[in-house]
Amino acid sequence: MALTTYVEAIRQGIWEEMEADERVFILGEDVGIYGGAFKVTEGMLERFGDLRVIDTPISESAIVGAAIGAALMGMRPIAEMQFIDFISCAFDQITNFAAKNRYRWGAGVPIVIRGPSGGGVHGGPFHSQNPEMYFVHTPGLKVVAPATAHDAKGLIKAAIRDEDPVIYLEHKYLYRRIKEELPREDYIVPIGRAAVRREGRDLTILTYGAMLYPSLEAAEALSQERGAETEVIDLRSLLPLDKDAILASARKTGKVLVVHEDTKTGGIAGEIAAIVNEEVFEYLDGPVLRVTAPDTPVPYSPPLEEFFLPNKDKILEAARRLVTY
Amino acid sequence: MVARPMTGQPKPGTVRAIGPRRPAPRSVADPAAGTRALVPDSATLLEMFHLMKLTRALEDRIERKLYRQGKIVGGVYVGRGQEAISVGAAMHVRRTGDDGHDDIVSPSHRDMAIFLLQGIAPRLILAQYMGRRAGLTRGRDGNMHMGDLKHRLVAFISHLGDSIPVAAGCALTFKMRATDQISFCFFGEGASSRGDWHEGVNLAAVMKLPVVFICNNNQYAYSTPTAQQFAVKRLSERAGGYGIPGSTHDGNDVLEVYDAVGRAVDNARHGGGPTLLEFETFRMTGHSAHDDAGYVPKRLFEEWSRKDPILRLERFLAEQGLVDPAAVAEIERRIESELDDAVTWAERQPYPEPSECLEGVYAD
Asked: Count of CB atoms within 10 A of residue B4's CB?
């Protein structure tokens, strides 16, 4: 059976939801005739027309604001950020209008804001960011970050069907590097559920997005090197977090390492460490460790970016330290 | 008061008018360029008068009585002296009770009359101000921060320009559905300096969306006068920069507001796209109830109090033989009595339970 890339999985998910539900539409920069900077919306203009695939001015705040207004009128908008870095321009609409609307006056805002995130492609400071924690800190939003083609499709469909605003972070490094066989039938991946990618009893690695892959490599290396078996959990959703899955694995292994591409201070690893401490402290055999990017902007030049990004070796080094406790 | 011939007719089903039916404009004509005016009939004039009086009385209650008695727990922002804008404009909002037919309104913080006109009872507004569960936000938010989609009202947020793209998005939906609904978007001249305002107006202009942008230019944004807010002589000049029609009007003349908005509404309803309307008025108070507006020259208050929109309409109605002093006194008596009951009701409403803090962040 044919393999589907991560980017094609996103496209399929959006396409199928647009076929199934006429309320679903997409708006953003260059999503129409050009098919999106990464071709996520390729062919959609021809199929769905220019009232459902809308090329907008370069106005992220208006893109999200208009999506909010349309959602209030009963539509299901998908707002594309050409690069997720530009979501900062729409920060106010997202965090103050969309996120708080239901709580304030009961009017839900079912919008999806999606775009390519992450580094590894020499995009430099403004085409490589991981902005998740700005939004994880905002009650009223949901934040998801798929690592597999299966989840990319299942989560975009779940996000479109969700009654609340969802920030959907697609990792551009994975777009064409990840290929999988996908189910033929309609499916979703529920928001708020993690997935165990590798079972183990000695150590837990919690990660998401592109960092899943070096985490799995490090787990394999640790197994070969020391016979220690690492459980690797793909969080998939950052808000809400799957606390049950996190705590169950922490209880089982007693050793937790969190890996993310986002920078360290205020990254979700700190939040997870606090949850683990509060809930299962007595099960722990060692400190909760973090492997993350350093607290700098994402640099451009290859040696700098390589230094910036977590990788298998950095993860393995932390895992070795943790497993000795 | 601008004299105008008693001809022309607004959109049937929205308001009643005197005179022969005027064909609706179907091109992007400058709505201010026409010579014939939209003139409300007697019943509409009296409704507007009542609404302006009710708005003034309700806000006086809130600001000058309940706030000073400590019964309003947070901020109070009123539209005293600016009532003609929300009333004259919102009279054109189509209200039939059918979501697929009715217009949508995004009011701002000095637009109390819009809430009343869209069917929100004064007692619910008072409960909102008092932080009671019966308020439109169940105590989650205060004062004019309220909305209700059943009443076709979108709540604004304190970051005022944010409503502009949102109102454009409502209009985008109407365009996608090919209905003739329109989106009313209200804001002050201060909000027009926000980036969201420009992005929203531009998007609406580019996509030719059915939205009417209505600016209450009350000369001050908190303590900042218009000269420090924008360098154009009139805010409506900006319309040219977006390729849409725009015009500036006397915001203290409810008939002029009614006429200008009615034309823009007709234009938007028939595919002509957005219009930027600026209404000049004056904030007859501080920014909020705690602000004595010491930075505003006293002569301006005196000058503008002579242009009070309610007194002007009352004089016009008297000239037309539609009211006399006894009738006005009777209207005032009824309003005060209604508000007495509303305040009593609101004060009896319970506060939310503390644990309700946790509810309703998400749908599930």
From this structure: 15
Q: What is the pLDDT of residues A216-273, one digit of tens each?
A: 999 999 999 999 999 999 999 999 999 999 999 999 999 999 999 999 999 999 999 9
**φ and ψ at B259, to 5 degrees?**
-65, -50
Does residue B210 have a cis peptide bond before it, meaning omega lies within 30 degrees of 0?
no
Number of other CB atoms surrounding residue A224 within 10 Å: 9
The answer, yes or no, to whether residue B33 has pLDDT greater than 70, is: no
- Chain A residues in contact with B149 by the CB 8 A cut-off are 72, 107
For B328, which DSSP code? H
In a domain, B163, yes or no: yes
B246 near B277, Cβ under 8 Å?
A: yes
- Selected residues 175-204 of chain B with any CB under 8 Å from a CB in chain A: 175-176, 183, 195-196, 199-200, 202-203
Q: What is the pLDDT of residue B37?
A: 75
Domain count, chain B: 1
SS (H, E, C) B67-88: CCCCCCCCCCCCCCCCHHHHHH
**What is A195-323's CATH number?**
3.40.50.920
The per-residue pLDDT for B364 is 84
CA A196 to chain centre: 16
Provide the CB-side half-sphere exposure for A301 (13 A, CA): 2
Using an 8 Å CB-CB cutoff, list chain A residues near B159. 92, 96-97
Q: What is the pTM of this model?
A: 0.94
Evaluate whether A27 touches A69 at the Cβ level (below 8 Å): no
Q: Does residue B37 lie within any of the structural domains?
A: no
Q: With contact defined as beta carbons under 8 Å apart, do A62 and A56 qualify?
A: yes
Which residues of chain A does CATH 3.40.50.920 include?
Answer: 195-323
pLDDT band at B217 (very low <50, low <70, confident <90, very high): very high
CATH entry, A4-180, from 3.40.50.970, 3.40.50.300, 2.60.40.420, 2.60.40.1220: 3.40.50.970
Q: What percent of chain B has pLDDT over 70?
A: 90
Q: Do the bridges between strand A256-263 and strand A203-207 make them parallel or antiparallel, or are there none, so unpaired?
A: parallel
Test mutation, A24, A52, A59, A73, chain B, max B CBs within 10 A: A73
Q: What is the value of ipTM here, to two decimals?
A: 0.96
Non-local CB neighbours of B1 within 8 Å, separated by 6+ positions:
B253, B255, B312, B315, B316
Identify the domain containing residue B227 by its residue range.
51-350
User: Is B114 in contact with B315 (CB distance < 8 Å)?
Assistant: no
Q: Give a yes or no: residue B46 inside a domain.
A: no
Sign of the dihedral defined by the CA atoms of residues A6, A7, A10, A15, in that order = negative
**What is the CATH number for B68?**
3.40.50.970
A24 vs B contacts (CB less than 8 Å): none
Under 8 Å between Cβ of A204 and A252: yes
